[in-house]
Amino acid sequence: MKDSREIIIFDTTLRDGEQAPGCSMTIGEKLKIAHALKELNVDVIEAGFAAASPGDYEAVNAIASEIDGPTICSLARCNESDIEKAYEALKVNKNRRIHVFVATSEIHLKHKLNMAKDEVLKAAYEGVKMAKSFCDNVEFSPEDASRTDHGFLTEVVNAAIEAGATTINVPDTVGYTIPYEFGELFKHLISNCNNAENVVFSVHCHDDLGLSVANSLAAVESGARQIECTINGIGERAGNTSLEEVCMAIRTREEYFDFKTSIDSTKLYPTSRLVSSITGMHVPRNKAIVGDNAFAHEAGIHQHGMLRDSSTYEIMKPQDVGIARSNLVLGKHSGRHAFLDRINDLGFKLEKDEIDPAFREFKKLADKKKEIFDTDIEAIVLNADIANMSRWSLEDLETNSGSSWGSTASLKLVDSGENIIERDNKENPASGPIEAVFNIISDITGYQLELTNFEIHSVSVGDDAQGEVTVTVSYDGQNYRGHGISTDIIESGALAYLEVINRIERNQAKH
């Protein structure tokens, strides 16, 4: 039994988080994140929606087969086919949960389901009952609960509890509610539902009005004992409740909430960076808890206070969330042992087959930079596993630009068969070096992409700092993002564009 003060953390990064535009992940990438979530000590991992596609089924099954400790969960609609698929994917893991749902709001019944209320009641009851026949641990969600008539919502929840649901999740599916209103809804359900004391009430919020964390905390104050959330708050539209924000709010204000979570907060920053690297979604600098500016102080009066006592302007310590503060700077004479020790200090792990490539990248960077900072090492580590799963890599790049005659480039790419393909655009100069490089890459790989966004960020400090380029493209009706990091910003752009193409190919292979 859990401590009555402990809030269950249900992570849905791999299911709801993946639904964010451009965030589709391969099975290998999902496993990498699932292992990080286990290290983070989340209670429940929603591994996916097993019935959605063969790739989703394989991912749920792979995670259920490989990850022990956390409860592994699959989403399912209230129908026999979905529930059987979820069970088949999960049955290898004794610590499993089936999460069934059906929409309950008037707008969803009328415009999406075309169902009457009695049909929805029947679907909820029979869906939970069927899931219960396969699995003792069953969660039920009335989709769009926050816009559902309270009387009907109570009826549906009663039906789910009667059928055997052990967790009742109350979703604010479109991020419509506000904290006081949502808290009152939880009080109503817990007071009016039969046998409410025998189930765990859960909260699932979206951030359309920027209130997902506040709404989740209001639900906890009103009786919810499970929070559904994602790393970095990724998810559909404006995203989901941010795991790092809601967990650190509970930890930092424990004297107010009188609750706690099982989360190892020192793993928050490394997990955030891993998810950002895999999904291609950049973490905003001002993002609470894990953004680059979360513990930065520029105003003189703030700096003066910090020097005297960090608690003057910091309510948390960087180390609490896994941001290392170290004076150790590596360089070209640093060896493998120092490099691996620093990776460990930063909270990251490399697989055996990733160590040599990562160390080679470190030595290459050390030849270009006088000093290697923690942010440089993070970039190397986070790109090590991605490179292992990529078809295309950059071997060499040269560019030449002039204001009167345009820009040319010469590239060498290596494919997974270790074939080197060399091409240039000397006969057809572009308007700029980035355009020249992107055109050649598209020509070699055969992918014609629509570039929708191009961003540049500094990764570390100094004149020889690495620059990170993030590109967003549209291809076949989907958005894809890629990162590239180098001391040469043109090379960063080439690496980002190649990552997008590799991501597209991995996504196509998944389906």
- The shape is globular
Q: How would you classify the helix and strand content by structural class?
A: alpha/beta
Q: How many domains would you count in the coordinates? A: 4
* CATH third-tier fold name of the largest domain: TIM Barrel
Tally the helices. 17
CATH-defined architecture of the largest domain: Alpha-Beta Barrel
Q: Give the full name of the CATH homologous superfamily of the largest domain.
A: Aldolase class I
Strand content: 15-25%
As laid out across the biggest beta sheet, the strand order is: 1-2-3-4-5-6-7-8
Q: How much helicity do the residues have?
A: 40-55%
- Through-space gap between termini: 40 Å
Please report the first level of CATH classification, the CATH class of the largest domain.
Alpha Beta
Overview of this protein structure:
The protein has 511 residues and is α/β, with parallel strands linked by helices. It has four domains: 8-279, Aldolase class I (TIM Barrel), CATH 3.20.20; 294-322, no CATH class; 324-388; 393-510, 2-Layer Sandwich (Double Stranded RNA Binding Domain). It is 42% helix and 19% strand. The protein is built from 17 helices and 14 strands. The protein has helices at 27-40, 54-66, 80-90, 106-113, 117-134, 150-163, 179-192, 212-221, 243-252, 254-257, 268-279, 300-308, 336-345, 352-368, 374-388, 433-445, 489-510, and strands at residues 8-11, 44-48, 71-77, 96-103, 138-143, 167-172, 200-205, 226-229, 393-402, 406-414, 420-424, 450-458, 467-475, 478-486. The strands form three sheets. An eight-stranded parallel β-barrel has the order 1-2-3-4-5-6-7-8, surrounded by eight helices. Helix 1 packs antiparallel against helix 11 (268-279), helix 6 crosses helix 7 and helix 14 packs across helix 15 (374-388). The two termini are 40 Å apart. The relative contact order is 0.08. Residues 298-307 have low confidence and may be disordered.
